Amino acid sequence: MGGVRTALYNYLFAKQKGGDFLLRVEDTDQTRFVPGAEAYIVEALKWCGISPDEGIGAEDKLPNGGPHAPYRQSERKPMYRAYADQLLDAGHAYYAFDTPEDLEAVRERAKQAGNPNWQYNSITRTSMKNSLTLPDEEVQRRLDAGEAYVIRVKMPRNEEVKFEDRIRGWVSVNTLNLDDKVLLKGDGMPTYHLANVVDDHTMDITHVIRGEEWLPSAPLHVLLYRFFGWEQPEFAHLPLLLRPDGNGKLSKRDGDRLGFPVFPLIWSNEETGETASGYRERGFYPQAFVNMLAFLGWNPGTNQEIFSLEELVAAFNLDKVNKAGARFDFDKAKWFNQQHLRLQPEAELVDAYLSEARDRGISIPSSEFALQAMHLFMDRAEFIGDTLDGAAYLFADPTSYDEVMVGKKWTAEAPGYVSDLKGVFAQTDYSEASLENAFKAYLADKGYGFGQVGPVLRLAIAGTTQGPSIFMVMQLIGQETSERRIENALRTLA
Questions:
Q1: 343: pLDDT confidence band, cut at 50, 70 and 90?
Q2: What does CATH list as the number for 76-238?
Q3: Of 252, 323, 409, 446, which is the active-site residue?
């Protein structure tokens, strides 16, 4: 969900400004490659209605996805070396020959000395094996010999790096608190830091809207823009999505534990077999999912909560995105779906209702019957399936009766009540209003209270005392069925 919300905010901002929403796959860390993830992302964005204008997923709109192809960083690998060399030549980066074993050893020594957070930085680099400490001839020999190395940024020492974030205001970090991040790995693949900056520049990205977890990396990116002599884009770092209970970032484990999805669509990991439920499969409308996500960290500043995607585009404002984390509330998510359920075209609702009924093995006589039956249960429904829950008596005569309510309400006088009402109702046109008026007139004439007779009538017709207006139910099922059910109840509950 967090990734979709980030994409949504980028989409809303781009569309509002007349710009393009671009999808680039940042797959430089091959150890984290997950088969099927790219196709999943494209499908999820499409379901949400925020498909990219350019890049991955836009191949049907533009040749190769657009003018900045390729859009997978792994396919752009050859171009990054030239930019790393540019930084080397300018003295803003250096070769580091330290092996993983070397780094592990120095970290262990630092830990033993009481420094568990050792960093490769402007101070510690002076004692490591790199092109800043080794003679030029030794560096060249190692390179010629094909010795493994990485290219690290040469972080300035004791310098304040300042930049303005659209959400958090001015951010200032001293470089003494920053490490010399790897820019190019031993296999020639760039890290996120180099690839992201280079690609944002070469793809004409004007605004970088991303999660809060990337805020610590922003000072490095600001420096890289300066080192290259490029104009940096505007930054906006979004607040975290927080778990419903307790503290901390929302995770899949929270969804598993509390019973709600954290993925837009059902997800299956081809390698591990791990699966996760999705909002689409739980019956959420994409409009409701998007509406809910938009409000996790943003508020329009008005009382309006229900928005179409077009309305979100018009109302979205980065300056109204909160700094604090947004706590997720699944009940609120269902409320959003409830509101959007009621906004759906009637014909589409009927089709969905009939489809759900077929899946449950329920036979419904007509679309008109389906429409009326659906509306009987629409008031409290959050999903279309809710309008069928507890509604079995609309489609078939009761085969059992609520034992508890029978014990409380089906007194010795009850058969007389429903027998009388059968005759009273036979004199009406069996419309809801006529049935209700006839019922009230019967109570007034006999001096009975509603609590004496109403539950008894409902038991006879529906087998339960719960549900919508019994007169609306009787209008829907008709006189013949209603009278048959009263006779069945009289025989069964005698």
A1: very high
A2: 3.90.800.10
A3: 252
CATH number of 397-492: 3.30.70.1150, 1.10.10.350, 3.40.50.12580, 3.20.20.70?
1.10.10.350
In the chain, list all ranges with CATH 1.10.10.350.
Answer: 397-492
**162: annotated active-site residue:** no
pLDDT in tens, 146-176: 999 999 999 999 999 999 999 999 999 999 9
Residue 240: C-alpha distances to residues 22, 165, 322, 325 (Å): 22, 16, 10, 5
| CA distance linking residue 417 with residue 467, whole number of Å | 20
